[in-house]
UniProtKB/TrEMBL annotation:
SUPFAM superfamilies: ABC transporter transmembrane region, P-loop containing nucleoside triphosphate hydrolases. This is Mitochondrial potassium channel ATP-binding subunit. It comes from Microcaecilia unicolor. Belongs to the ABC transporter superfamily. ABCB family. Multidrug resistance exporter (TC 3.A.1.201) subfamily. Its main location: mitochondrion.
Length: 683
């Protein structure tokens, strides 16, 4: 269509007489080439165009109002990470955002420095070429215009030089562009990989209290989407930021060299429009975010109703749910309509302004051409260079938002990379196996969980576990029994008092040695990993031989049932061990604890989730495991603790009674009461 219009103009122009005719001819030549360039861009844009959501549309409109569709879509497509909706992911609320740590970032980036420099260099080169291309286009137009004016026969010859030059520029620019994208994605991917590894390492080392306070989903999010967002922003900002700044600077110089007067005009008009466009763009983005939230709200209503359809039906609330949903949907419909109107006005205005700028340039440029101060080629160069500036400015205004998002995603990642745990995993004394006796004593321990500072779970708690003896702790649920075990494992440190192993404060001992070798811990609901039984048992002692694994399994009464599986020890237990029965799982867990041959064994309600039959098998395994060790048994069921050397009754964080089974029964206190109540329940 554009071309047709050009042809039409050409016919009209060729009939126009006098100087004004030659002026018109010269300017229409510039226009034709410009129009063709525009048209090409438009078509390229249509090819690259894929359906985008309203949000994305706003995102790409967010830039200055100056842009034609082509330029914008190019920017949408240039996202190096295939994240189509990168610009407009629903943002997390800004509250007490962590700070971006540049030093840590530098550490991650340093190994990639050369690749980054090379990428920057190539991007810079591509930008310089982009500045040159309008100038060569101008040369080309000058040849064309000379030819149409003079009709001398050397058209092909004259065209050859600028065409070849232009082609080689295009080719070189393509090469440089793909080169820097390759390098930059290498840098981005490697930095992201290191970021993930560093973060994961740091997370694994955090205190148990840290995990009490944080949701797993949030932590996993930092490993995945935050790193991803940081990476995308990083690549985009480096590539496009560098290109855009170079192009703006370079093109402005060319513009100035071509025509200082026209440039003066642009300098006044363009920033105003860019600023205005960015402002309206950000308003529209906010609108779009609200609209998205409203859609989510409506979906939430539907989700709840459909998910709990039995409850809805049982209360005959279908009509009410329908009404609730339709209210929310209407709201979101309204908001999206307003948003659509905003986008429409914005796009309309930006088209008008864009066209006015082109018109103004041609108008002013035309008058310069009439005075022979400007050639047709110069006007052409000017228009293309001005468009490059517009596009670069648009991209920079998009990049500003990207920088903010990238920095805050990076800051969220670095927050946990930089977090130092209070209890380190390694460092401290190790007691050699043969001199380790296994006497444990809690002395005046007062403790409250870090997540609930006011609530003292243990108060002035003292208890000694003699070596080779079994001590049982009983008491109501919530009385603090598991807390005692957690303190011995040094998952937490006491607020007051201390825990000693063979007379050494466990804070002086190496925590990994303490947990990994000195203590074996078996809990009520053991968690197995989704691998083979062999590997699960070996988890207790990495590098253990197959024979050691078999021996541990035998000790745990597990060898028999494991061998009865068709695949024996190679049986994969499923996620968290779901394919094993409770009793089997527990026995694998016992084998896993026994393979380290720990001096101290903690059994925290190890049999209470089992049915009577498996309880017996597991109990037999535990009894065998207890010999020759210091054992702390925490139990709800009294059948499991009657044989203990010492029984301690814990109530509200204090030891209220201690003695053997018969002594405590005779005393007729708390323990006797517990036994009586349990006997009654059994009946
Ligand atoms: N990780 C934790 N963070 C905060 N409070 C906890 C945590 N674990 C347990 N508690 C609280 O500490 C108290 C003692 O819990 P626990 O030692 O598990 O009791 P028991 O094992 O005797 O049933 C309970 O009030 C419980 O709510
Ligand atoms: Mg417990």
């Amino acid at each position: 269509m554009m071309i047709l219009r050009c042809i039409g103009m050409r016919i009209w122009c060729s009939h126009a007489p006098g100087t004004s005719g030659s002026l018109a001819r010269r300017s229409h030549q510039a226009l034709c080439v410009y129009a063709r360039a525009q048209n090409g861009l438009g078509r390229a844009a249509q090819r690259a165009w894929r359906p985008v959501r309203v949000g994305q549309a706003v995102a790409f409109l967010m830039g200055p109002a100056l842009l034609s569709l082509g330029g914008h879509v190019v920017y949408c497509q240039l996202d190096l990470n295939n994240n189509a909706n990168l610009f407009l992911e629903p943002k997390k609320k800004l509250h007490a955002e962590p700070q971006f740590n540049w030093r840590e970032f530098w550490k991650l980036l340093r190994p990639q420095l050369w690749a980054l420099l090379a990428a920057s260099l190539l991007a810079f080169g591509a930008a310089i070429l982009n500045i040159q291309i309008p100038l060569v286009l101008g040369e080309l137009v000058n040849v064309v215009s000379r030819y149409t004016r003079e009709y001398t026969g050397r058209y092909l010859q004259d065209m050859q030089k600028p065409v070849m030059k232009l082609l080689s520029f295009y080719a070189l620019q393509g090469l440089l562009t793909s080169g820097y994208i390759v390098l930059l994605s290498r840098v981005g991917e490697r930095v992201a990989a290191r970021m993930r590894k560093t973060l994961f390492k740091s997370l694994l080392r955090q205190d148990v209290a840290f995990f009490d306070a944080k949701k797993t989903g949030m932590l996993v999010n930092r490993l995945t989407s935050d790193v991803q967002e940081f990476k995308s922003s990083f690549k985009q900002v480096v590539a496009q930021g560098l290109r855009s700044v170079t192009q703006i600077a370079g093109c402005f110089i060319s513009l100035y060299l071509i025509s200082p007067r026209l440039t003066g005009l642009l300098v006044v008009v363009m920033p105003t429009l860019v600023g205005g466009g960015a402002l309206i763009g950000s308003l529209l983005r906010r609108l779009s975010r609200h609209a998205q939230e409203q859609v989510a709200k409506a979906t939430g209503v539907a989700d709840e109703a459909l998910g709990n359809v039995r409850t809805v039906r049982a209360f005959a609330m279908e009509d009410r749910e329908e009404e609730l949903y339709s209210i929310e949907v209407d709201k979101s419909c309204q908001m999206n309509e307003v948003l659509g109107m905003g986008i429409a006005v914005f796009q309309g205005l930006s088209n008008v302004f864009l066209n006015c700028i082109v018109l103004g340039t041609i108008f002013t440029g035309g008058s310069l051409m009439a005075k022979n101060k400007l050639s047709a080629g110069d006007l052409m160069s000017f228009l293309v260079a001005a468009q490059t500036v517009q596009r670069s400015m648009a991209s920079i205004s998009v990049l500003f938002g990207q920088v903010v998002r990238g920095l805050s995603a990076g800051a969220r990642v670095f927050e946990f990379i930089m977090l130092e745990p209070q209890v380190f995993l390694h460092g401290g004394k190790k007691i050699p196996f043969h001199s380790l006796v296994g006497q444990v004593s809690f002395q005046n321990v007062t403790f409250s969980y870090p997540t609930r500072p006011g609530d003292e779970v243990l108060k002035n708690f003292s208890l000694t576990l003699p070596p080779f003896k079994t001590v049982a702790i009983v008491g109501q649920s919530g009385g603090g029994k598991s807390t005692v075990a957690a303190l011995l494992e040094r998952f937490y440190d006491p607020n007051q008092g201390a825990v000693f192993l063979d007379g050494v404060d466990i804070r002086m001992l190496d925590p990994s040695w303490l947990r990994g070798q000195a203590i074996g811990f078996i809990s009520q609901e053991p968690v197995l990993f989704g691998t083979t039984i062999m590997e699960n048992i070996r988890f207790g002692k990495p590098g253990a031989s197959d024979e050691e694994v078999y021996a541990a399994a035998e000790q745990a009464n597990a060898d028999g049932f494991i061998r009865s599986f068709p695949e024996g020890y190679s049986t994969v237990v499923g996620e968290r061990g779901v394919t094993l029965s409770g009793g089997q799982k527990q026995r694998v867990a016992i084998a896993r604890a026994l393979i380290k041959n720990p001096r101290i064994l903690i059994l925290d309600e190890a049999t209470s989730a089992l049915d009577a039959e498996s309880e017996q098998v597991v109990q037999a395994a535990l009894d065998r495991a207890a010999t020759g060790r210091t054992v702390l048994v925490i139990a709800h069921r009294l059948s499991t603790i009657m044989g203990a050397d010492l029984i301690v009754v814990l109530s509200q964080g204090r030891v209220v009674e201690a003695g053997t089974h018969s002594a405590l029964l005779n005393k007729g206190g708390f323990y006797a009461e517990l036994i009586r109540r349990q006997a009654k329940e059994l009946k």
